[in-house]
Write a structure and sequence with these properties.
Length: 136
Amino acid sequence: MKRKRRRNQGKPRGKGRMFVYFGVAIFIFAIFGYALLSSRSVPGESNVHWHATITIEGVDMKSLKQAEDFKAHPPIHLHRGDSTPTLHMEGGPIPLGVFFKSIKFDTSMYQVYVTGAEKDVDYIFQDGDNIELRRR
């Protein structure tokens, strides 16, 4: 009487599993690699997450609308910290004027200065800028 050979008999058992594990490892590596690369800010792309300090001469900064005052955070908004308010931009480069319009602040009586240099209200701030609005 002949015995039937088992399907896996004579074949090394670990090769099939090894290919499955290898495939899963490549897949996981690809997902994490994509997540890492897509979260970085590349110059010229609209993937920014910048902060700047801001002061306005003669204005109580606590009176201005901040991020929590909106139903959804606008892409450029204010956070009132312990001492100095922080302007926060995320998503894409957005001119300061868009922020001031969103909080209904009239800038016509003010001049914008960034780290001491005179700028236009349509200036797009960079991470770490120190923004001041001084009366004209």
